[in-house]
Amino acid sequence: MPLVATGEIVGPAVRAGLGAGAFNVIQIEHAQAVVAGAEAAGAPVILQISENAVRYHGALAAIGRAAVEVAAAARVPVAVHLDHATDPALVREAVGLGFGSVMFDASALDYTANVAATAECHARGVWVEAELGEVGGKDGVHAPGARTDPAEAAAYVAATGVDALAVAVGTSHAMLVKEAVVDLGLVAALRAAVPVPLGSVFKGGVRPRAASGAGGPSQR
């Protein structure tokens, strides 16, 4: 299968009521292992390279080109995604390398600045996932109370035109204990309010909280 755009994986998953798996890779062996698993399952997959991984390697080009080549040689559809990028120059480089999407993270800015920066990024023509508020646990700071407001999320998507939205629903990065609780009621409310796919973090140890009529994130 050829390397595909991220929308070609996420779009069909959303229409089928499914999630699309997206996994961060640091080394080429990680990309190869994720693709091997996807091939064994007969499922598409998204390879993610974060800005932190770029810092680890000292540059994007080597690991980025390697991930794109692994994706291009796969027997299932594979997209490559730049994850949690704060630098517009890095976004432009990723697009030039053949990445199928970017997650542009302007969540550290105030709402107005976030909207302006994200809209400018999206105007470059790339499939963009954005973030509103804090997804708990980034940079080692756990924020179990961090939640995305459905009304604000809907307004944000309308203002920026983004293709997907990362939301805070109780999950957390870098968990060391099994204490996160996924707020499925909020997931359902966001799914009803926001017209684009939702992304969230599912690291090991999250526990769903039962909720009537709850849905699930459609990415990651």
Describe, in plain words, how this protein is organized in 3D.
It is a single chain. With 220 residues, the protein is of the alpha/beta class. The chain folds into two domains: 1-104, Aldolase class I (TIM Barrel, Alpha-Beta Barrel), CATH 3.20.20; 130-209, no CATH class. It is built from eight helices and nine strands. The strands form two sheets. The chain has a seven-stranded parallel beta sheet with strand order 1-2-3-4-5-6-8. A two-stranded parallel sheet has the order 7-9. Helix 6 links the parallel strand 4 and strand 5. Helix 7 packs parallel to helix 8. It starts with 6 loop residues before the first helix and ends in an 11-residue tail after the last strand. Residues 135-142 and 202-220 have low confidence and may be disordered.
